[in-house]
Amino acid sequence: MEHEIIHKLTPEQEELEKKKAELAVLETELAEKELNLVTFQAELSSFENEYMRVIGIRYTELDRIEAQIEEYIAFLESDRDFKPSLELKKLYREVAKKIHPDLATDDEERQRRQELMAEANIAYENGNLEKLKSILQDWENSPESIKGEGISFELIRIIRQIAQSRDRLKSIQLEITTLEQTELFQLKTKIIEAEKVGQDLLADMANELDKQINSAMKKLKELKTKFG
User: Fold this and answer.
1) DSSP secondary structure string, 136-178?
2) Which is it for the CA torsion 28, 29, 32, 35, positive or negative?
3) CA-wise closest residue to 105 among 138, 150, 145, 139
4) Where are the domains of the chain?
5) What is the rounded CA–CA span in Å between residue 132 and residue 138?
């Protein structure tokens, strides 16, 4: 009578299989949440475009603010004297040493490293020490930073992927909550509710702004006439 040989998994192998299953569930949930977020952002962006087409064009305040922003940026660029501290230089070297694209083992990893280096370069140019620290810490905690073969190394990478997925899920929820608290989303909600009772709130707002613009133009004309 033949006996089948049953290969029993080691504790590490069992744990790895559990973590793989856990990661698979998280990745499915994450894909759905990412879709929800992108859809939400697209719908809000579409509404914003319509709002700017109907209402935004009537506001001249934006031009004034943008002009001030341009002046401020021009002033900063002309007056800026870049003097990086020794700590900033040291930290940048450490970041470059660990995440430089030339250290990549495949195209996907190279792309990731290039993006991080671009962020690090901007942070360095802006003297942003905290951002550099954050980039370095995120890399050191990432699955990509774990090199090596075998169950132990794979298990560590899977655990870190799980942690990243959980963090991203929290981040997505925070992004959605933040968007829901914006004035733009609140206005969109009001307009949708108004449409249910046959009211075009956007058109009403445009008409009111037109009245204000006409009134202001009339006053300006009177002042021009008064002062010649």
Assistant:
1) HHHHHTSGGG----SHHHHHHHHHHHHHHHHHHHHHHHHHHHH
2) negative
3) 145
4) 12-48+58-204
5) 10
Q: What is the dihedral of CA 168, 174, 180, 184, to 10 degrees?
A: -80
**What pLDDT, on a 0 to 100 scale, did the predictor assign at position 145?**
61
Helix (H, G, I), strand (E, B) or coil at 4: coil
Give helix then strand counts, H and E, for the chain: 8, 0
* Amino acid residing at 63: D
Task: Specify whether the CB–CB gap between 205 and 55 falls below 8 A.
Answer: yes
pLDDT score for 69: 53
Cα–Cα distance for residue pair 128/121, rounded to 1 Å? 10
Contact 99, 144 (CB under 8 A): no
Burial tier of 132 (Cβ tally within 10 Å: 0-12, 13-18, 19+): buried
Residuewise pLDDT in 10s, the chain (228 residues): 455 566 677 888 888 888 889 888 988 998 899 898 989 989 998 888 888 788 777 765 445 545 555 665 565 555 556 677 888 888 888 888 878 776 666 777 778 888 888 888 888 878 888 988 888 888 777 766 666 677 777 787 778 878 888 888 898 899 999 999 998 899 899 999 988 898 888 888 888 778 777 676 766 576 556 544
Q: Is 186 exposed, middle or buried (0-12, 13-18, 19+ CB in 10 A)?
A: exposed
Q: Which two tokens stand for residue 177?
A: 């909550």
Residue 21, token pair as written in the block:
């299953």
